[in-house]
Amino acid sequence: MRKAITQEHGMGCAVACTAYVLNFTYQQALNLYETPQYAWSRGFYCQEIVTALSNAGKLYQYKQIKNTNDSVLNLPDMIVFIEPSSIYPAGHYLVYTLEGCWMNPWINFPLIAPAKSGFQPILPGNPTYAVFPLKKDDFIAQ
Would residue 114 count as lying in a domain? Predict the structure, then answer.
């Protein structure tokens, strides 16, 4: 199992998830984003994650999750955004692992001294978007 990646900025959960998927450090993943300062301010949208992963040679796409039984939620290295809640007021990104658990880049939220990452068996909220890997077969020649 790869090591969990802790987010280093208040809104950097997408960056930590990107780092986990790529087996990069947090800083290496942050450098893949066009506007890295968003890790301090507003966070990142799914398309920005897809672009960052593409910058590292990974093929991903995203979609809105309308059914919690959606098969895309079972894909290893899929990044999910959970809706804002009392636990994660701004929402939160996590990664589904090959081992069938969730890598949470700030598992001890709201503690910040220090923030910690880890693995958990259950998604701590309702999934709203998924950023998931594509296979080469998924592309149609145009």
Answer: yes
Please check whether residue 42 lies inside any domain of the structure.
Answer: yes
pLDDT value, residue 138: 54
Buried b (16+ CB within 10 A) or exposed e, 2-35: bebbbbbbebbbbbbbbbbbbebebeebbebbee
Q: What value does the mean pLDDT take over residues 57-63?
A: 98
How many domains does the chain fold into?
A: 1
0.90 exceeded by pTM: yes
Nearest residue to 31 via CA among 63, 11, 56: 56
Assign residue 33 the CATH number of its domain.
Answer: 3.90.70
State the DSSP H helix or E strand holding residue 92, giving kind and residue range, or none if neither.
Answer: strand 92-96
Query: Which residue type occupies 82?
Result: I
In a domain, 1, yes or no: no
Give the pLDDT score at 110: 86
Q: Any bridge partners for residue 103, and if so which?
A: 95, 119
pLDDT, tens only, 72-97: 999 999 999 999 999 999 999 999 99
